[in-house]
Amino acid sequence: MLDIEKLSYWELKSYFRDIDFLIIGAGIVGYSAALHLRKSYPKSKILVIERGYLPSGASSKNAGFACFGSATELTEDLSKFNESTVWETVSMRWEGLKYLRSLIGDQSLKLQLKGSWDLITTNDIELKNITESKLDYLNKRLKNITGENNVYSIDNHTQEKFGFAGIHSSFRNRLEGQIDTASMNRAFYKKSFEQDIMTLFGIEAIDINGNTVLSNLGEIKAKSIAICTNGFAQQFLPEKDIFPARAQVLITKPLDQVPFEGTFHYQMGYYYFRNIDQRVLFGGGRNLDFEGEKTTNFETTHLIQEKLELLLREVILPSTSFEIEHRWTGVMGVGETKKPIIEHIQDNTFCGVRLGGMGIAIGTLVGKKLAEIISA
Ligand SMILES: Cc1cc2nc3c(=O)[nH]c(=O)nc-3n(C[C@H](O)[C@H](O)[C@H](O)COP(=O)(O)OP(=O)(O)OC[C@H]3O[C@@H](n4cnc5c(N)ncnc54)[C@H](O)[C@@H]3O)c2cc1C
Question: Which of 98, 132, 218, 338 is the most buried (most CB within 10 A)?
Answer without folding.
Answer: 338
